[in-house]
Every structure is written in C-alpha cells, then in structure tokens.
Amino acid sequence: ACWRRCLQDAGSAIYSDGQRIQPYLLKAQALQEFERWGEAVTALEDCINTIGNARQDQSVLQALAEAQFLVRKGQRPDLYALLGVKGVGSKASEKEIRQAYKKAALEWHPDKHADRGEVERREAEAKFKKLGEALEVLTDEFKRKLWDEGHDLDSISQRVQMRDQQQGGRR
Prior knowledge:
It is built from 9 helices and no strands. The chain has helices spanning about 1-15, 20-35, 35-50, 60-75, 80-85, 95-110, 120-140, 140-150, 155-170. The chain has about 170 residues and is mostly helical. The N and C termini lie far apart (about 55 Å). It folds into 2 domains: about 1-75, Tetratricopeptide repeat domain (Serine Threonine Protein Phosphatase 5, Tetratricopeptide repeat); about 80-170, Helix Hairpins (Orthogonal Bundle), CATH 1.10.287.
C-alpha cells in the first residue's frame, strides 16, 4: 500500500510541477517495486526529456541505468531451467550442471532430429545451440557470477572482453 500511495503522490507532483527531478525518481522507484521496469525506464526518460538539467544529474542517470538493467534481466531466459537443473538453480554444482547438460544435449542433438521436418530440425538446432551457451556461462566461474547477478549474455560478453583486455595489458 505504501508504494501504491508513493506512485500516486509522485504522479500528482509531476502533474502539478513537472520541473522537479525527485518525483520522477520516486515514481520510477515505486514502479520498480511493482516489477514494472519498462514503465520505470519510461518515467526516467520522461524526466530527462522534460527537465533540461536531468541529463547531467547522476541520480537520474544511475536510476535509468538500473531500470534498463532490470528490464534486460527480466527478458533473460532461465539458463538453469533450460538445462533442466530443477529446484537448485544457482546453487547447482558444476557437476550437476554438466550432468543436466549431457542429458538435455542427448535429447536435442541435431542428429536425433535429422529425420524430422525442416521446422523441427531447426528448432532442435537452435535449442542445442542454446544449451551450449548455457553450459558455457554456467560452468565458467566469472560468467556464472555475472549471470547470477542478473547480467544478460551481451553484458557478460562485454565484461569478459573488458577483463581479458585488462589482463592482456598486464602481461
């Protein structure tokens, strides 16, 4: 009830005086509490587009980056479920992940679907590829940590690339 009231009050404050940053930040925070991340992004973008100095305001930029991160996090597939690691999720050991991958890979291997129709064959190939990506992320300690924090595959790739460049520069 508290966040619902906050959302209403922030909306009223924006309506009566749309030139203050704080109501937009509160509105975005309330929307995030309701897991309405896309709407939080929109509220913060409205703030930036409406208030001239909001583009330079670190609290707005940080809140926008966080809201965008949560949108991407919400759109990610569940790699643990994809592999069939049931119940334990992020607590699964590497051995459990590899066993689940082996079982799923045997089921979805393209050779097992070679005699099927074109659509089914392509679906099996796509699923098999996703299984490989899931295994790669969940069995690499650095990538798995990022995944469990909520990063998507693109963000993980960027961070791995940055890490590799930094380590390459020290050698």
